[in-house]
Design a protein that fits this description.
The structure holds 3 protein chains of 3 kinds.
Chain A (H helix, E strand, L loop, with lengths): L1 H32 L6 H19 L3 H24 L7 H23 L14 E3 L2 E3 L1 H23 L1 H11 L1 H6 L4 H26 L6 H16 L4 H17 L19 H12 L10
Chain B lengths: L1 H29 L8 H16 L14 H23 L4 H21 L1 H4 L19 H26 L1 H11 L1 H6 L4 H27 L9 H15 L4 H24 L2 H25 L13
Chain C lengths: L3 E9 L6 E8 L4 E5 L6 H9 L3 E9 L2 E2 L5 H7 L1 E4 L11 H8 L7 H11 L16 H13 L5 E5 L7 H16 L3 E5 L3 H6 L3 E6 L2 E6 L1 H6 L1 H7 L3
Parallel strand pairs in C: 3-8, 3-9, 6-7, 7-8
Antiparallel strand pairs in C: 1-2, 1-4, 4-5, 9-10
Helix pairs in contact in C: 3-4, 3-5
The chains are: A mainly alpha, B mainly alpha, C alpha/beta.
């Protein structure tokens, strides 16, 4: 029981929190701008590497580098929007999707050029785990779960309590009506990118702290995030967040040795779990798990 | 001189294989509006099917069975269809972007399976010793003969794709792509039409995979890279003009020429710079795609990608 | 000079013009009803004023300022509110949030606007926290009109406010429209339901094929047998 919690549930929650942050941003972009943003994984990776530069250059901890990672990733999202997506705003969603895909290749290439393909790490060293009655938890895991919770709360306040958040939800409901109601559409789009980029950059730093940094690190997260967003009903931020948690847990638990010590599923296929869940979802409930603007 | 001719034949062979993949994608995306971002999965199915059927018997993977290529390749096309059928049955009812995600996911699962199911695929060691048709003729004539075979196959696929596009079936596909409701109103069955186009496109990709494995004489996980197997094909189709078969073939040849030329240029650079050049190329594919989408969304020739 | 003056408006969607030189006036406190057969350009004219349809020629002057081709999202700031016929509420937002969005451009006026709108449509008070998508058609229309009134516009444009409503709600909406006009707001309405709308119209404008056919006080148009035969279905 304890090993289940220590080695599967907690890592599952951590991975789920990272997926959730990424999927929520995807969902917001989809809601406001109406297209699947395939460069989202690269925003995440870019944030992780931006923090690495700060960690190495300033000698600070990766946690302290998160604001800098956000400050670097947000302008990147704005620049991609301005250079490419804004000019294609009236095109079919498919065209925007392909364009975001091209953006992903460009960002990934820049990361390869700057940092090479070898995995890197923040070099935080070894910190003793928190121990409580047989339950062990890595301190970084505790921090990531807390950090993700804080991010979720902030997002909730932004969307439900603030004027800007209300305008964002209005845009997601009906962009044309929002325009004639006097909502500044460009401002809402800028805010959406900022929020999505901040979530992605933070998730990237978390992933870098938990594992390691690689230019393709975002791609695997991207696929799981899409699965999470579809699972939760794309365009609904809370559903997507919950979808992310479910997928993270499912991935880790899939290799739990439930029967006579052999894993349920070979760990080599862990990253395939998200898709298995996705495929099942698409068959049984394509509108997503949850109803309403969850 | 002979060296140059050999190089040219090699490059043209690969361009032809890419043309087959681009024609398959054109059936799916250009003609029918299906976003398949998992080309790699279908290519892998075809490539491994052909590899295992034609390779000599080996203990490191299933088979091989030593079949002649002409018996194995149709089954390779069929293997692409076999993968496409369940995906299509599930995902084609859904929105275009869901299909894009689902196909990437399937391609990733195929990649994981290829890497991990050693008994079947040889795992990371792959399937070596795949015979290439006409290699008994020796160099350079074997290479030229294989190029001729690939060219003949591509010509056949092109004729088939053209006939499809011009047939009532092709008109129905375009009708479904452009206005599903209107197509339904005149009695078309969009789900069925989409599935048929998806399967046909997957068959093209499976056959492309078979030609690829025979060309390399080897098939392994490293030979299948999403950038070159899936995304480069998208660039080719969009550059050439989606919806237009001639555009798909021209796009494949033109983009492959640029790709191969930069590859050759990069190889001339000293050590470290050569690896970096590969990343510059990655950046440039992305940039090229953006520029085409912004400046010439209809491609070099061909149908326009519709405006909302 | 009238609050709204449109002269010789030419425009439409894409290449094809729907309006071929239309004039339109509206004064403060006046109810102006545009009627005419399908395809006459009634809604298009309204959208042209709202900045949603490109105006190729002619002038639209509002409060002394030219507004043709001004961006739609700035109209509310100028005191010009537009309520489309369909999809005129944000379904996942509550009634209160829908109304608050009406004051998005000047948030300081949210409280005062909300009080005014709830006084005009008391039924909405009990539904403040209900998602607008769950309301009945009539209540939704009230939310849409209420949202447009939040910033005290000088002109409100309603595209077929009675479409799909029960006779009871139609009567209520028309009665409220008169109350809005009594406050000094100019009301511009397009109505299929032409007879009851013209009955309350200070000015009726008959359009056909993108051109003005007649302009007169509503009751006078109703009394004109030629107009009745041609445009009001007998």
């Amino acid at each position: 029981m304890e090993s289940l919690a220590n080695f599967y549930l907690i890592p599952g929650l951590v991975l789920g929190a990272i997926y959730a942050m990424s999927a929520t941003g995807l969902s917001l972009i989809y809601g406001v701008m109406g297209f699947a943003h395939f460069a989202h994984g690269e925003l995440l990776a870019f944030g992780a590497y931006a923090a690495l530069v700060a960690v190495r250059g300033l000698g600070i901890s990766p946690w302290a580098a998160i604001p800098l990672a956000i400050a670097a990733t947000t302008p990147l999202a704005w620049a991609a929007d301005r250079a490419f997506y804004a000019r294609l705003r009236r095109s079919l969603p498919a065209v925007l999707l392909i364009s975001s895909f091209a953006t992903a290749l460009m960002i990934r290439a820049v990361l390869y050029l700057g940092f090479g393909p070898t995995p890197l790490s923040y070099g935080t060293g070894i910190v003793p785990p928190l121990v409580w009655a047989g339950f062990r938890m890595q301190q970084r895991h505790a921090s990531i779960i807390l950090g993700a919770t804080a991010a979720a709360l902030s997002l909730h306040l932004l969307l439900s309590r603030s004027r800007a958040g209300r305008a964002m939800r209005a845009m997601a409901d009906d962009p044309d009506l929002a325009r004639i109601t006097g909502v500044n559409v460009d401002a809402v789009i800028r805010l959406t990118w900022a929020v999505a980029a901040a979530l992605a950059a933070t998730a990237g730093v978390f992933l870098g702290i938990d594992t390691e940094l690689q230019p393709v690190m975002g791609f695997n997260v991207l696929l799981a995030s899409f699965a999470a967003a579809i699972l939760g009903g794309i365009g609904r931020p809370w559903g997507s967040a919950l979808g992310g948690l479910i997928l993270g847990l499912a991935e880790e638990l899939s290799s739990y040795p439930l029967l006579d010590g052999t894993p349920l599923l070979s760990p080599a296929y862990k990253t395939g779990v998200a898709f298995a869940v996705l495929v099942v979802m698409l068959i049984v409930r394509p509108q997503g798990l949850f109803r309403g603007m969850g | 001189m002979e060296q140059a001719a050999l190089y040219l034949a090699t490059m043209l062979t690969l361009a032809g294989i890419y043309a087959a993949l681009a024609l398959g994608l054109n059936l799916q995306w250009g003609l029918t509006g299906l976003m398949n971002f998992g080309g790699l999965g279908f290519v892998a199915m075809g490539a491994y099917t052909a590899a295992l059927l034609t390779a000599p018997a080996s203990a490191s993977h299933l088979g091989g069975f030593g079949w002649p290529w002409w018996a194995a390749w149709p089954l390779a096309a069929f293997a692409g269809v076999a993968l496409a059928l369940p995906i299509g049955a599930i995902a084609l009812r859904l929105r275009a972007d869901y299909l894009a995600v689902a196909t990437i996911g399937i391609a990733e699962i195929v990649r994981l399976a290829v890497r991990n199911e050693d008994w079947l695929t040889g795992g990371p060691l792959g399937v070596p010793g795949i015979p290439r048709p006409f290699e008994a003729l020796g160099l350079p004539w074997g290479q030229v003969a294989y190029l001729a075979l690939v060219a003949a196959v591509v010509a056949g696929l092109f004729a088939l794709a053209q006939a499809t596009a011009r047939s009532p079936f092709g008109r129905a596909l375009r009708a479904v792509r452009d206005d599903e409701e209107a197509a339904k109103a005149v009695g078309k069955n969009p789900a069925r039409l989409r599935l048929q186009a998806f399967l046909l496109g997957a068959a093209f990709m499976g056959l492309g995979g078979a030609m690829l494995s025979a060309f390399f004489k080897f098939m392994g996980p490293e030979a299948l890279d999403p950038v070159t197997t899936t995304f480069l094909v998208w660039v080719m189709l969009i550059a050439g003009g989606s919806g237009n078969n001639t555009g798909a073939v021209l796009g494949a040849v033109a983009v492959w020429a640029v790709w191969a030329a930069t590859d050759w240029l990069a190889a001339q650079l000293p050590g470290e710079l050569a690896t970096r050049a590969a990343y510059v190329r990655l950046f440039l594919i992305g940039l090229a795609l953006q520029v085409i989408l912004l400046a010439r969304p209809q491609g070099l020739i061909g149908e326009r990608i519709g405006q909302r | 000079m009238a609050l709204l003056e449109a002269r010789g408006v030419v425009g439409g969607y894409g290449e094809a013009d729907i309006l071929h030189g239309v004039d339109l006036d509206a004064d403060a406190g006046e109810i102006v009803v545009i009627v005419g057969p399908n395809g006459a350009g009634k809604s298009t004219l309204m959208k042209a004023v709202a900045g949603l349809v490109r105006v190729r020629a002619g002038a639209i002057v509002f409060g002394g300022e030219p507004i043709a081709d001004a961006p739609a999202e700035r109209m509310i700031q100028r005191g010009l509110a537009y309520v489309p016929q369909e999809r005129n509420v944000f379904p996942s937002l509550t009634v209160e949030e829908n109304l608050a969005l009406g004051a998005h451009a000047r948030p300081a006026e949210t409280g005062a606007g909300m009080a005014r709108v709830l006084a005009l449509f008391p039924d909405l008070a009990a539904k403040r926290r209900v998602a607008a998508g769950r309301l009945s058609g009539g209540q939704r229309q009230m939310v849409a009109i209420g949202r447009a009134l939040m910033l005290k516009p000088r002109l409100i444009m309603l595209d077929e406010p009675s479409a799909g409503l029960s006779p009871k709600f139609c009567a209520l909406i028309f009665e409220r429209v008169q109350a809005i006009a009594r406050d000094g707001v100019a009301v511009l309405m397009v109505e299929q339901n032409a007879r009851p709308a013209l009955a309350i119209a200070d000015r009726g404008v008959v359009l056909a094929m993108g051109r003005n056919r007649a302009t007169a006080p509503g009751p006078a148009l109703l009394a004109d047998p030629a107009i009745g035969r041609l445009f009001l279905g007998g």
